[in-house]
Amino acid sequence: MQNNVISTTEFITPAQLLAHWQGHRHLTRRVVEAFPEDKLFDFSIGGMRPFSELVLELIRLTIVGAHGTATGQWKDVEELYAGDTKPTTKAGILRFWDDATALLNEQWPSIRPERWQEMDAALGQYEGKVYSIMLYWLDNENHHRGQGYVYLRALGIEPPFFWDRGQGNW
Amino acid sequence: MQNNVISTTEFITPAQLLAHWQGHRHLTRRVVEAFPEDKLFDFSIGGMRPFSELVLELIRLTIVGAHGTATGQWKDVEELYAGDTKPTTKAGILRFWDDATALLNEQWPSIRPERWQEMDAALGQYEGKVYSIMLYWLDNENHHRGQGYVYLRALGIEPPFFWDRGQGNW
């Protein structure tokens, strides 16, 4: 799916980066699954958003980010996804998640190799090199999923192992 | 500090990666500072470790990881750091943190460019390419710092902005 003609001194290839991110996404999906249906939407700590809202943010950023990185055009998620962007059930969130997974896999190979070191304004407003914009999505996912772990622990539920990115059915 | 003769198609250069990680580390340091002294060591949610223990893990991984990446030798932190590796005060943790910052900056330029795509066993036991080992430290930091955000919110304390990696005094 990816151009593999790379120098051996590259830190990470685009194909490796996609696999790395999708591995994290696979883990995040399992954290969604670990939540009881009601707690996914109404449990929170210290006035924070419930995990459903954090996850919807992650899905939006994945879809908008993949498209923006590939095309240079920053569109609203509603322009890029015909399904339900505000699901109110766990099944609906997982469907949205899986569709984002497919969209990310579809867009990734069309990202030009020199794109990562170009300047852009993510979502039309946050200036930076594209690599740093892309890493923001990944870092933000680790950040919010870590918060989901605390919610699960507070609910007495053991979360999946952080290191287990088993490349399953995504 | 870093060899800048790179192709323009590289996703991220080693110098950019160091700056990215140190930006995150700067933010994590500010999260440590935001904790009241006692809560840093005794507050937890759902049976999790207090934030002090999460941070000591991050510091150990930074020191051991930087040295292991640079040299291929995986040593215990006590072999690499002459100071107090089990501080019991916030000031002690911050001192350990800052020393790790300096050690990371010192080691980084000696990492061979082809090192990232080599196989190794992190800490002598976790096999993978070196880039994925290095990303583990970064991802793990985002994960645990996100948990620190929940602790702070539960304590009624507003954490620093996630996106503010102001390259201050690290």
CATH-defined fold name of chain A:
Four Helix Bundle (Hemerythrin (Met), subunit A)
The strand count of chain A comes to 2
Q: Over the alpha carbons, how many angstroms does the gyration radius of chain A reach? A: 16 Å
Percent helix of chain A: 55-70%
How many domains make up the coordinates of chain A? 1
- The structure class of chain A reads mainly alpha
- Largest sheet of chain A, order of strands side by side? 1-2
Summarize the largest interface: chains and residue counts.
A-B, 45 and 45 residues
CATH class of chain A: Mainly Alpha
CATH architecture of chain A: Up-down Bundle
Spatial separation of the terminal alpha carbons of chain A: 15 Å
InterPro entries (chains A, B): DinB, DinB/YfiT-like
Organism (chains A, B): Paraflavitalea soli
Binding site for a divalent metal cation (chains A, B): 144
GO molecular function, one term (chains A, B): metal ion binding
